[in-house]
Predict the structure.
Amino acid sequence: GEETALMASIEGERGMPRPRPPFPANKGLWAKPSNINNVETWANVSPIIINGGAWYASMGTEKSKGTKVFALTGKVKNTGLVEVPMGITIREIIFDLGGGIINDKAFKAAQIGGPSGGCLTEAHLDTPVDYESLTAAGAIMGSGGLVIMDEETCMVDVAKFFLEFTQRESCGKCVPCREGTKQMLLTLERITRGEGTMEDLDKLEELAVMVKESSLCGLGQTAPNPVLTTLRYFRHEYEAHIREKTCPAKACAALIQYIVNPDLCRKCGLCAKNCPVTCISGDRQTPYVIDQSKCIKCGTCLEVCPFKAIRKE
Amino acid sequence: MKEITLNFDGKECKGVLGDTILEVAQKNDVYIPTLCYLNGLSPIGACRMCVVEVERNPKLLTSCTTPAVDGMIVHTKTEKLNKYRKQILELLFAGRNHFCMYCSQSGDCELQRLAIEHGMDAVRYPYLYAPFENDATHPDLMMDHNRCVLCLRCIRVCAEKVGAHTLDLQKRGWAATVCADMGQKLGESETCVSCGACAQVCPTGTITVRELAYRGKRKDCDDVAESVCPLCSVGCKIKAYVRTGSIARVEGTGTESPDGGQLCHMGRWWLPESTERERVPVPMIREGAHFREASWEEAMTLIASKMKPAAEQGRAGALVSSLCTDEELSIFSAFFRDAMKVDIDTFDGDILRGFFKGFEPFKAQGVRPFTGAHNILDSDLIVNLCADPQDEAPVVASYIRVAVLRNNARLVFAGDIADPFDGLTDASVRLNGTCKDPNFLKDLTACLIALAESKVDLDGMTALDNYAKALDRFAATAGIARDKAEEIVKLIASSQKPVFVLGKSLAKNPAVIAAAGNLAIAARSFFSDGLGIVPLVSSGNSLGSVNTCVADEPWLRTKEVDFLYVYSTGMIPEDEDSLAAISRSGFSVIQTPYLVRPLVNLADVLLPAPAWFERSGHFCTIEGERRRLNVIVPPQASLKGLSTVFEGIAKDLGITVGRPETAPCEKFFVSSVSPELAKMAAL
């Protein structure tokens, strides 16, 4: 969270950040020198006092000591909170602790640091988890969110998802974040609907850089990170959405279709019975057909078909 | 003040430690674009237009908030900065509905000016056609949220200078809008005092003064004149914009001045209205029930012929307005009091007599018995005695609110009216008609003296006993419980710089005013310019009319007059008693700029006069300054100045008018003795 906004809220004011300097350590809560840290940081203090600094320093890397808690989630077999020593590689977290990708699909990317963070690709799997290495890769440690994505995750959709969050949480004080993230989100929405242009892509990147550099607080400064890192490592996905109007991961609803293969269809009607918008028609003699104009792309028909006659494209 | 040196784009610039980067830049004529920044309001760094690059710092810094450090090398106009600033402007134009074509502010808009400056000829982001509304619920102010850039200047000026804190933000992010009170429309607000400060600071056409919006933009106006508002004793400095002989709008000065550049609802709206009112065109003489036009010569001869016998028999009088300048009051004084030896008084003479008889014992010691009103902002305890500042001198109410809400001052109220700051007051005493009785103040003073003595007296028991008795007496007089009485005494005793605001109703009894002076001394209320008292005398130049035109004893209600000369500025309605006296007089000469009724109906001779905006001169204000009025709209050639009129009448009377024997209030403005040496008056 934003520390000065948090302090403003405690003081009974509207939770908006204040310009720094002065920094909270000099002038914070009620204008007094204040120390503000994440709960995880405070939780480390008593073990250090009890067990000693040397004990703590024996874990981790040269510049990042001790442990870090990650919220491991996404397409891994074991999800949950994990406490790991600094310096462990991402590969170890995902494939050892996490048990690997669900259904043994291919690993695509790991979003680290939540909506403020960046994504790391297969090339980064052996990156050690410490502050410097992550920053060099364009990501941040953040609060320790680690979302694992596979081949069926659309990276444009991921960027849009995280930007939806930061745009909603924007306090509205500074122009780059308030107006910039809104325009960025609208651009991403257009792209995922198949209405984007190559010019949009250039403007998106240019805007993201400006928002990152000129925003008042950490929210605006890091909100473009998902966009910038996905553009850096997965630009081809953006271009596919724009040029070919397709979603390579088959995730963006406007760009996919569920189609019944009439050769494989056994006319059992299970798909039609389970369709929430009853857009599948057919009978015991006729292969079932999905009405694309009504289909909401929920994927239920594909899941329930016992004959794997429905495909997504 | 330690001097520091910064480098702006290769130019060496000096400032002092404590300046922000922007302040150093502005001192050295280095231009950095700003939008949300306004000198005098707390900087918030919201618009991001003023960002600069500072060497050895990886981040872009907002120059309006970042403290300047000696040796900083600052770049203000790099390609990156220009690009970002342009993007910010484009985002603003795309985000809300900025249609310059329909906007009354077009040509006078800071957003537009910045866009032109940065060469923004296209907006590359799609327009969002936002669903914001136009709040037209307030009778005088319009707030069109479509034009808002969320610079938050209106919020800051209302909170930091007016103290009402009517405006703030609701919702968040892109949907955030400025709202009044608890998410209400401006017209529904209970805290808005309609001062128009928000409209004055708004950089775009979001908040506009409805009546003035299409009268003329600042740039359309022919002239801007600086003057002083005549309507109340504060005498706010004003900037009047003139367009083809009309006052198109009136603004305060800058937000960096002590009063924050604010005006009140009277100054903001009554002053521009005054160029449009019906004027007395030429001298008129009554014939029966009608007036006929006359020449100045005929009028002056008639006046002289009526005044002479009345004056000789001691049955003549003059009644003038305290909204007149020092110079005008001197002319009246020289003519009526010194040359003609005729009784003269002002409309608010009773109030002024009360105040100044009460202040006399302190003035006699050479102590200035009051402090400049803006010093309320430096006070840590304000004692409001029978005053309703929002009614009597609204900017004083702003000072009180700001002092209490932002500077942690305490507030005590005692009066026979409802507490005007109910909700802000720490201790409130409702007196039942005892505003005319000095005992409340006397007994409170006695408590303070007894408390102080009990702290130094070696014979502790007697002093404590005296204090206890004084408290009981005070509690009884005030009709309050003993512990509440003690609370009030302790509040005053523990304050460092208390200030006492005196409402004009206290002036009914000069003894009350003197008692207030004693109270200020006992409370050690000493400011650098005088005793810590802010007297809400009623008119713009009340302080100037003392010594010159205020009579020592009232005569208007009791004296039988055959001839009465009346001068009114026509800006404030005359009171009942004065109108009755004018009506009773045998022959009345009314000199006034406007056809104000019923005043002009009582005239036997009606003379035109320059309006307040047509004259220059000086006012002695309760801000502790003698302020200069300037001509805003020059008078018509046919209008005669006051001295010409009286010279004409004097010639017909065969007398010469010398210099006035008494000068306006300068005596009150000068402390020859420090207030700390003031001695209490005998009551």
Remarks:
- Chain B touches chain A at residues 43-48, 51, 59-60, 62, 65-67, 83-84, 87-88, 91-92, 94-95, 124-126, 128, 149-150, 152, 168-169, 171-176 (CB under 8 Å).
- The longest strand of chain B covers residues 237-243.
